Amino acid sequence: MNAESRTRLNQTPEWTALAEHREEFAEAHLRELFERNPGRGAAYTLQVGDLHVDYSKHLVTDETLRLLRELAAATDVAGLRDAMFRGERINVTEDRAVLHTALRAPRDAVVEVDGENVVPAVHAVLDKMSGFSERVRSGEWTGHTGRRIKNVVNIGIGGSDLGPAMAYEVLRSFTDRDLTVRFVSNVDGADLHEAVRDLDPAETLFVIASKTFTTIETITNATSARDWLLTELKAGQEAVAQHFVALSTNAEKVADFGIDTANMFEFWDWVGGRYSFDSAIGLSLMLAIGPERFRELLDGFHLVDEHFRTAPAESNVPLLLGLLGVWYGNFFDAQSHAVLPYSHYLSKFTAYLQQLDMESNGKSVDRDGNPVEWQTGPVVWGTPGTNGQHAYYQLIHQGTKVIPADFIGFAEPVAELSDGLKAQHDLLMANFFAQTQALAFGKTAEEVRAEGVPEELVPHKTFAGNHPTTTILARELTPSVLGQLIALYEHKVFVQGAIWHIDSFDQWGVELGKVLAKRVEPALTEGADVPGLDESTKALVNRYRALRGR
Ligand code: F6P
Fold this sequence. Notes:
Blueprint: H1 13-23, H2 30-36, H3 40-43, E1 45-48, E2 51-54, H4 62-74, H5 77-86, H6 100-103, E3 112-113, E4 116-117, H7 119-138, E5 151-155, H8 162-170, E6 180-184, H9 189-196, E7 204-209, H10 216-233, H11 240-243, E8 244-248, H12 251-257, E9 264-266, H13 283-289, H14 291-310, H15 317-331, E10 336-341, H16 349-361, E11 379-381, H17 393-398, E12 405-410, H18 419-422, H19 425-441, H20 445-450, H21 458-461, E13 469-474, H22 479-500, H23 511-525, H24 535-547
Parallel strand pairs: 5-6, 5-7, 7-8, 8-9, 10-11, 10-12, 12-13
Antiparallel strand pairs: 1-2, 2-13, 3-4
Enzyme class: isomerase
Pfam family, one: PGI
Pathway: Carbohydrate degradation; glycolysis; D-glyceraldehyde 3-phosphate and glycerone phosphate from D-glucose: step 2/4; Carbohydrate biosynthesis; gluconeogenesis
């Protein structure tokens, strides 16, 4: 179905069939679904690469899954997917191809944009990154005074920060522990201050990551970092070359800033910011884990790309996860989606997914500019277990909201831990399994009574259960597994955007705030009378100036 002839999603027979089918779940309970089909726990699982995906604790039957796949077929998810992999300009509002999948393609692959194979250029940049990383890691690359680089500070924001910052945490046990790697994103000067206050500038390399090289936060922080470096080193502009490299699509702006474009690692406009972490934007991570581990990460991404591209609908994991999200968001009114990793190393994983999912699918007009009449992307949230269990799980267990959740866990603790700390892993994972069990099956009033609980407390101690979860289990958390996980979510987001018929690859909603911030700034600094300032904001600005003694 092409854009012109596409029937409004909520008017398709497939949508109507799902809405009718939803009625059958008015009284359904997971307890009953498991009673009816005891083999469900084993049957409702899929494998992709190292990821074992259990979706048995979802409010779905074979019929639900069939109807959801029919919706995917009617909305031509596979057609848009193939167009993406072929390098067609599926980002319609920016008229761009969407080819993050080319970033992890093997050297001999062919992916064409406007008739040109982009894979050689991708690998040329990867080779350049590898050479540079090796030189820094070996000590061959030195700072201006000849000292070895011991600190890397990545300055970027959004997609130019969240990916490498998240992955650096995830893969800490694979990093060179002698190298300090920090990430600065916020224009709040405190961020840069805290990042550099105990660093020796002579041993510090700044990686300025910005696709556009115009983002105000990044350019402001990069300028302050340059001032700090030159002041501390008592050096002139010539010191910049050894201490600053750039990751960008914009060579002109990089040169304007004073960074030698020989020290620029390039990527292209067909890489969206939130899909750029496996491009040159990954340089800080490569410096930390080395080129070989970085390649393992890319291979993990690629494995899931190939699965998404070729696996039949029945066993296609990103398709399944995307469809489950549509089921709850559009037919159960779920407003949010929790991602709950049971790994301390995944502490920034959900924050990374927030940008991936919410910047992609936080849209209210469709690809043709019509307002959508259906819910689009959910609020994505979550932090690692077991911490969340003692904070907000209460609301998931006994609150009034439908919150589908992904539980991500690993059989093996990270190899570097001592034997004593490794022994804690079973306890962590016991919580992991216990939570999805409690969420699905709850505890009935009869079970509570049987424990001798006084009648007045029975309603309080009863757990309704029936809360849907996906369990993703892998043997261990490696660079490849991280790549697999990210690609899984990238393609899940893609599937949902395709069904909702929105452009998942633009982000116009971010622009207004940026423009207004630039306009308001002179009111703060100079007390300028800024036209178009509303009465509330004007009063707040005046209060701010008074508090600052201006
Ligand atoms: O916040 C909007 C955004 O454009 C993101 O999509 C992007 O990742 C981020 O800003 C940073 O942009 P840049 O890499 O161009 O500095």
